[in-house]
Every structure is written in structure tokens, then in C-alpha cells.
Design goal:
The protein is globular and about 65 Å long. Strand 13 (329-335), helix 13 (343-355) and strand 14 form a beta-alpha-beta unit. It has 14 helices and 14 strands. The chain is an alpha/beta fold. The chain has a single domain (2-226, 309-387), classed as 3-Layer(aba) Sandwich (Rossmann fold), CATH 3.40.50.1820. Helix 1 (2-14) crosses helix 8 (227-244).
Length: 394
């Protein structure tokens, strides 16, 4: 196991030359709206947004974020028309352009030791998305891809005294920004939210908590972190540290870069606990862990673990039961061979929602955490776009 991890990390460091440069700010001039009018297709525009909810976060993460927005072709050919909006929340790879590039998936695949690669579309993301509208039954909608990257990985889309208020960022700042700057239908009946992994967790939580903002939700491989998973990860922290030691890396998490290998377990535990168990008085990572180590073996702290349990989707669905009942679409899926141990918790969530008489759809598929991702995203986007009600002005 240790040899395998080291080989994968070295492979990521030295064998994939395409991923050695840092991301550059997208060329917004090349994505100007009038260009889409000329080519007769939808396009992706970028906006720089100042996020008040992220100001002064203790990790030093920027409050200025690039927002990527897909505008369908009719946005330009029919200038009076308004459009429904689908918000996409990323998990890992942790950056707002997750859906648009293939390289970060390779580092996720290597660092997390996943068993299958993502099915990134050969033609590229934008042509793939336009084809959904032109040929695969997706109705036109604005799609918003927010950036919620933190120092150590993705946000889990909660308000945190350490990471910043990512829930407020999405629900308040971002929705207001999009409705103010684009021709949206500013009403929850035409607003949906989806995401993958941590983004699917965030989408489900935000929808059930804020049905007055979002009325439709689709989660792809939603993240669950029951105590068994947390303790498994805890036991692996030192193993991961040993693998990185020959490269001069210190113990603990490393600042996350989508185009570099990263400590998947260490980083995941710390970005989760900076959200769920933030502690500004506990440097250097400003979070408590729900376990301690005794002779190198993790021992659970029951009081802290109870706080973590309260943030899992099983508990949240009970807490926000009335919000769930208001949603018009509740959909989530998970691969039966999910290599991040998400399948069983999602099956349990499906059963719990059924017991609660919550109208929903859960789909199992033959696959893992990230393979078939774009195939599944296609289903979610087509479904959500068709679930919006018709309007008299269309």
C-alpha cells in the first residue's frame, strides 16, 4: 500500500507535464457575449465577484472569486427572454472550473487512489454542454459555476468562523449577484442547485435548508462522513505523512493546488473540521479533530464526534424535514463501487427519506466516485431543466 501511494505521488509530480503550471485567470475578452451571437451557440462568460461573506476569513483565502456562467444561445438571439438558473457546486477537484478541465481530475485520481478515471468529454466541456441543449433534450438555462476552494480543499458550504461563510456566499451573495447581472427568472420556482461530492452535500443541504431560494436539487455522489469513515481516515493520516516525508513535506495537510498532488486524507479531515469543528484558538490549523491519538492509534472523542454527526445528511434531513417537503425535485445517485465509501450511507439516506415520506429519487449505478460523472451530470441537467415550469412569456 505504501509503495503504491509513493509511486502515484511521484507519478503526479514528475510524469504529467501538462499540469505543472498554475491556473491563469480566464481570458474574459475571448468569452465576450457578442462572440456567442456570431457563432450561434451558448458560451461561458466569467465575472469577478467580491464575496462579502468571505471577507476576513482566518485562512487568508481570497474574497474575490471568479464566477463562470454558461449562457445559452437564446440569451443573445432573444434579448427580452429571461432564463431559469442551475447552480453547480464543486467538490474535489476544488476550484470553480472543475467541470471545464480534465487535468485536475488526474491529480484527484492519483492522490485519492481512485480505481477509475473521470469520463471527461473528448470534445471539451462547452461543446458537450451545447450538445445537451441542441440534441439531448436539455432546455435552455443559465448555469452558474461558483468557486468555493479553501486553503486545503473544497468548501463544505457551511458558515465557519475559520473558513468563512460559504453558505451565505452561495445563498445570499451569489444568487443576488447573478440575478442582478444576468437575465434570470428571479424566483425559486426557476432556480435549481446541483453538485458533485462535497458539492452534492452542499447542494442537498442548501436546498433543504433554503427552499425559498432553491426548489430543485440533484446531488451526484453526495459526501457522507459517518464516524466509521472518520476513524478510518484518522488511522491513515500517519501513513500518508510517511509517504510524503521523502519529498520533504511536513506532517499534516498541505495547501491545495488543483494542478498538484495533495494529501487527500489529511487535507480532507482538516477542511471538513475547519467547517464543522472550527476553533480559532487551536493553531496552526484552527480546528479540532474528533479524535486523539494514543500510542499512534486514533481514539474517538464522543463529544466532538456528536457535533460532526449533526452535520451529516442523515441528521440534516431530519432537522430540515419541512424544507425537504417543499422541494419539487430531490434526486441523488451513487456508484455501487464508490471508492470513497459513500455508497452505503447514500443507500441509508434513500431509506430514511422513504421512511419520512419525502418524495425523491435515488439511483444506484455500476461505477465509482468519479467515473461516469459527465454521463450522470447530463442526466441531472436535462432533468432539472425540464422540471422548471413553463412561463407565459416563453
Amino acid at each position: 500500500m505504501k509503495t503504491k501511494i509513493l509511486i502515484l505521488i511521484l507519478f503526479g509530480l514528475f510524469i504529467i507535464p501538462a499540469c505543472q503550471e498554475e491556473f491563469e485567470t480566464p481570458d474574459t475578452d475571448a468569452l465576450r457575449p457578442e462572440k456567442a451571437a456570431l457563432v450561434g451557440e451558448g458560451t461561458i462568460v466569467t465575472e469577478m465577484m467580491h464575496v462579502k461573506a468571505l471577507e476576513g476569513n482566518l485562512l487568508g483565502d481570497p474574497a474575490d472569486r471568479i464566477i463562470r456562467v454558461y449562457l445559452p444561445k437564446s440569451y443573445y438571439t432573444n434579448p427580452e427572454k429571461r432564463f431559469p438558473v442551475i447552480y453547480f457546486l464543486h467538490g474535489t477537484p476544488a476550484w470553480g472550473g472543475m467541470l471545464m478541465e480534465s487535468e485536475p481530475y488526474e491529480f484527484f485520481y492519483l492522490s485519492a487512489q481512485l480505481s477509475a478515471r473521470v469520463d471527461f468529454p473528448e470534445e471539451g466541456f462547452l461543446p458537450w454542454l451545447n450538445n445537451l441543449v441542441n440534441n439531448e433534450g436539455m432546455k435552455e438555462a443559465i448555469i452558474v459555476m461558483a468557486d468555493a476552494q479553501t486553503k486545503y480543499g473544497p468548501s463544505i458550504y457551511v458558515n465557519s468562523s475559520v473558513e468563512g461563510n460559504y453558505e451565505d456566499y452561495i445563498v445570499k451573495d451569489l444568487v443576488k449577484f447573478i440575478d442582478s447581472n444576468f437575465r434570470t427568472i428571479d424566483h425559486f420556482n426557476w432556480r435549481a442547485i446541483t453538485g458533485h461530492c462535497a458539492g452534492a452535500y452542499g447542494a442537498l443541504k442548501l436546498a433543504m435548508k433554503h427552499p425559498d431560494i432553491f426548489r430543485y436539487v440533484a446531488g451526484l455522489s453526495p459526501s457522507h462522513f459517518p464516524r466509521e469513515t472518520i476513524m478510518y481516515m484518522a488511522a491513515f493520516m500517519s501513513v500518508e505523512d510517511e509517504m510524503w516525508e521523502p519529498m520533504g513535506a511536513p506532517a499534516g495537510p498541505l495547501p491545495y493546488d488543483p494542478l498538484q498532488p495533495f494529501k487527500f486524507v489529511n487535507n480532507s479531515l482538516y477542511f471538513l473540521m475547519q467547517a464543522w469543528l472550527p476553533n480559532p484558538a487551536n493553531p496552526p490549523y484552527l480546528a479540532d479533530l474528533p479524535f486523539t491519538f494514543v500510542d499512534g492509534v486514533p481514539v474517538m472523542d464522543e463529544d466532538l464526534m456528536k457535533k460532526v454527526d449533526e452535520q451529516n445528511l442523515m441528521a440534516l434531513s431530519q432537522k430540515y424535514r419541512q424544507g425537504l417537503k417543499k422541494l419539487k425535485t430531490v434526486y441523488f445517485d451513487c456508484g455501487m463501487n464508490d471508492d470513497l465509501m459513500m455508497y452505503t450511507p447514500n443507500v441509508m439516506l434513500d431509506q430514511q427519506l422513504s421512511d419520512m415520506h419525502i418524495k425523491h429519487q435515488f439511483e444506484s449505478f455500476e461505477g465509482t466516485h468519479i467515473n461516469h460523472l459527465y454521463q450522470r451530470l447530463e442526466k441531472a441537467l436535462v432533468m432539472l431543466s425540464n422540471d422548471f415550469p413553463e412561463r407565459d412569456d416563453e
